[in-house]
Structures
1.
Amino acid sequence: MSQIDILMPVPLPQLVRDALGSRYKVHQLWLDADKEATLARVGGDIRAIATGAPILAEDMVYPISPALMQRLPKLEIVANLGVGYDNVDAQWAASQGICVTNTPDVLTEETADTAFGLTLNAIRQFPRAEKYLRDGKWLTRPFELTASLRGRTMGILGLGRIGKAIAQRAEAFGVKVIYHSRNRASDVSYPYMDSLIALARACDILMIVVPGGPATRNIVNKEVLEALGPNGVLINIARGTIVDEPALIEALRNRTILSAGLDVFADEPRVPPELIAMDHVVLLPHVGSASQATRDAMSQLQVDNLDAWFAGTDVLTPVAETADRNALAAARQKGKMTG
């Protein structure tokens, strides 16, 4: 395997670097001062890309675009660290017979815990209560009464693996669950709403769990926030680009909605100062899956996908666009014939 060249354009966890470096020839592009020269020199040998979303790669952004992949004529697979893969043009990769993998499942429970923690903190205002105590204000008078989780309905936007894990936690807390997804789920009994607006109108906790990317950019907009209403709480543990941030800031400022719990932002790690200034909003630095055990499991799955591919066996977690092996093979063959 030492003769297989892998491009690593961003710094990945040490587990990944050590594992891949021990049996592949890994080109750590982020370390090169002249990246263009490196690509020109090794691009013709690269058979795989190991990459990750910015939050998992020391906030470095390096899109895996058609322009990049076209420079790598031997490219067979892009292994992405993270369940979200909007940093990779998977549709174009599929059209060229290039497999794309991500690292789902192993982060489901950790991310669902974070989502529900944000929900409790945003509704009960526990961060403000702790600060109130630390500032010595409890010596003067008790902390104010807050909103309650009781009697609420959680509307989950995107009922995939993580969405279902969040739903289980909500049910355990006595919270009613409804949902909206691209497709109705056949394995749940939760009521299905046929649009995002209908979901927002029918719930008072809007939980965002859909993937990022052009199709979902700013879909949670002013109209959706108005539908959520003055008792509504927005929770986002997916991608910051899904929410129209200026509209959210205005809705929070005007109390169009009650509060928000946010683990993701549109321009990470830069968080709008308007949000930072609001003490009734709970903000986290994209830590949904950020436990050591979960990140190690994600890293190992990324390595396992690459090992499986080059061993000639099925990858463990192909993304939806490249899950059809026959379609990939046909696209690769077509590329050879027309290339």
2.
Amino acid sequence: MDADFHNKKPIFQQIKEQIEDQIMDGRLREEMQAPSTTQLVSFYKVNHLTVAKGVNELVEEEILYKKRGVGMFVTSGAKERLIKKRQKAFGEEYIDELVKEARKLRMSEEELVNMLRERMKK
């Protein structure tokens, strides 16, 4: 686990994204127990409510689920849901801006695609 609390995002959001990253890169797999709220509080040295807010959002998004008296677990299909969510966010945050700037520069679709292909090779 690692966090950058100098980031402009709220701490609960950063913790949530750290858990998502662990699912995305396979450190946390489907049906695997996730770190407890107590472990997260101890690791990040933040308030319990801050951690709970991030974890509860993951529960609402069906990324994690609670087993009463046992802990939090990664839901089946969580990684696929995260991929779809992040692809959508990627399009909205980066691609839309990329296309907007390309239009300002009067770049053709072909020029933009070629530029992307070149960058993907690196």
